[in-house]
Structures are given as C-alpha cells and as structure tokens.
Amino acid sequence: NTNPKSLEQVEYIDSQIQTAIIKNKEEVDKTIRYIQSSIIEDAISAIKYSKKVTIFARGFSEHISNEMTIKLQLLNKYTEEHKDPNIIRIKSKTFTKDDLVIFISLNGETEELVEAAEYCKNLNVKTICLTTNKEGRLYELCDIILLGFKSDKNYLPEYEVRSRLPLQVLSRILLDAYVIRNDQNS
Questions:
Q1: Does residue 150 have a pLDDT over 80?
Q2: CA end-to-end span of the chain, whole Å?
Q3: What's this model's pTM, rounded to 2 decimal places?
C-alpha cells in the first residue's frame, strides 16, 4: 500500500528534472561557444602531422579517451591510450618531437597527468588538453587547449563524478573536424 504522491511532490520532482536538463544544455551551449575554430585547426594539424598519438586520461575521462582512441585508429592514425598512473609516468619520459600527447582532464589537476605534461614540455613534445579548468596546471602546461564549460551543480558532491559532457562535446567536435579536414585533403 503506497501513498500516492501529492501534486506538490510531483511538481517539485518535475522542476528538479527540468533543472538537470537545463544544466546539461548549459554545459553543451557554453562549451560550443568557447570553441575557437583556429584552436580546432591547430589541434587537427597536430594530430595529422604526428607519427603517434597517445591519450592520457583518468577516472570517468577514460571513457572519452577510449572513444577517441578507437576513432583515431579507425582513421588509420597510430594511437594508444593509457590510464594507469604508473604507465602514464613512465611513457611520458619516452616521447619524441614526432609524438602528440592528448590529455583529457575535467579539473586539469590530476597529479600523474600534470607530471606527464611537465615531461612533455621539457622534451618539446606537442600536447593538446581537453579540460574545463582555466586555473588548472594542465591548462598552463599544454600547447593547445580545448576548453569546456563545467556547471557548478553536482548531483553526487561526495564523489568526483561530475559530468564529462563538456569534454565529450570537445572530443566529438575535434574528431568530426579532423575527419572533415582529412576528407578534403584526400
């Protein structure tokens, strides 16, 4: 025997759902507004002219890294991804100027990613960063920055599981643009 929800409860839940919808729309809209075509062009060139692309990500950003890796491989670009902190630290010391490293990090402060970016900078290795934090160390260390908008609203504040939607949007636009540019140059 369950109590039917009152009209006020239903309206409150509906308004909360609307808030969630608006939050996601805002993240997508603002991320798209942040994008500059010249930065996308720089990123496309960096991918195109690298001999190898390595993507580093941790946590929920690994899903985006995996998708980018598979798509670049399908486009016949030699690409590998790493998410293990120890492997990230070791691999980052072995890059050459022919390599490109893509960092995917919501907050731009993940310690092993920052360390890897420092090694890349010292080795003059080209880097791209997909992030939502202009104050993050990765933002300062990387050559090409694709910046997304992160909402302040977090529905699970006790965990670091914020939405990666802005990073997903950035990666999809970058990969779509890469395909378009490579089709034109075929």
A1: yes
A2: 67
A3: 0.89
